């Protein structure tokens, strides 16, 4: 049975989102593998990947660990534009406990990860995630 290209792309985008979320919960450096070389923000603002990596390190450095990470993917949407290009997103809800010493706080809320397809590879180009801010 041959799978349709849309199904493969949907699986790719979901798997990339899952790898990002799991890397977030582990405060892992491998989280950067899912990121595009530049981010596209509202207002036609473009940010280099290095800035995003610095922001992630800053967020992860504020806490000793994240525990009890959970997420639910609610929606996946993508549009293929031909020539190996496309746009899409994965959205849902996520939560985890951020621990610093003997103190902890629950961080939770909706998330939306925006993706761009270039040369048949999906990469994150914008992040809306509980605990993340530009």
Mean pLDDT: 92
Largest sheet: 4 strands, antiparallel
Order of strands, main sheet, comes to: 3-4-5-6
Separation of the first and last Cα atoms: 44 Å
Structural class: alpha+beta
> Radius of gyration in whole Å, from Cα?
15 Å
- Percentage of residues in helical conformation: 25-40%
Described by the principal axes of the CA atoms, the overall outline is globular
Low-pLDDT stretches are: none
Strand residue content: over 45%
The number of distinct β-strands equals 6
Query: Which series of helices and strands comes N to C?
Result: HEEHEEEE
H/I helix tally: 2
Protein described:
The chain is α+β, with helices and mostly antiparallel strands and 134 residues long. Helix content is 25%, strand content 49%. The chain contains 2 helices and 6 strands; from the N terminus they run αββαββββ. Strand 5 (103-118) and strand 6 (121-128) form a beta hairpin. The longest helix is centred in the first third of the chain and has 21 residues, at 5-25. The chain is globular and about 50 Å long.
Key attributes of the depicted protein:
134 residues, alpha+beta, two-stranded antiparallel sheet, single chain
Short description:
With 134 residues, this protein is α+β, with helices and mostly antiparallel strands.
Compile the SSE list and pairings:
Layout: H1 5-25, E1 38-41, E2 45-48, H2 49-61, E3 65-82, E4 85-100, E5 103-118, E6 121-128
